[in-house]
Write a structure and sequence with these properties.
- It contains 1 helix and 5 strands.
- It has about 90 residues and is α+β, with helices and mostly antiparallel strands.
- It has a domain of about 60 residues.
- It has a 3-stranded antiparallel β-sheet, with no helix packed on it.
- Strand 1 and strand 2 form a beta hairpin.
- The radius of gyration is 19 Å and the shape is flat.
- The termini are far apart.
- The mean pLDDT is about 80.
- Bound molecules: zinc ion.
- Zinc ion binds next to loops.
- The site of zinc ion has 8 residues, from loops.
Length: about 90
Amino acid sequence: MIFLNLSRYGIVLGVLSSVVAVTRPRRQMPKWVLICPKCKTEFEHSQINDVGMFCLMIQEKPEFANTGNECVCPSCGYVALYFRTDLLYRR
Ligand SMILES: [Zn+2]
């Protein structure tokens, strides 16, 4: 019985990982992220397109209002004011 459960678990894991591999062929997509000041969760602000990947040095951050942009944390729902300098590069 235990063996059955374990093998079933293994099959589920195998299916899941193959689904992830198929649906996310480009896991290394670079992006700009923000960090929630409340729960410290890192969440995606925007993805960086392929054209910009040729040279990271000239990679422009997305435009932000001078007064900051309000973004909602997808993890805890906290709304905070973010500035362009808060954007972090992740790949
Ligand atoms: Zn949060």
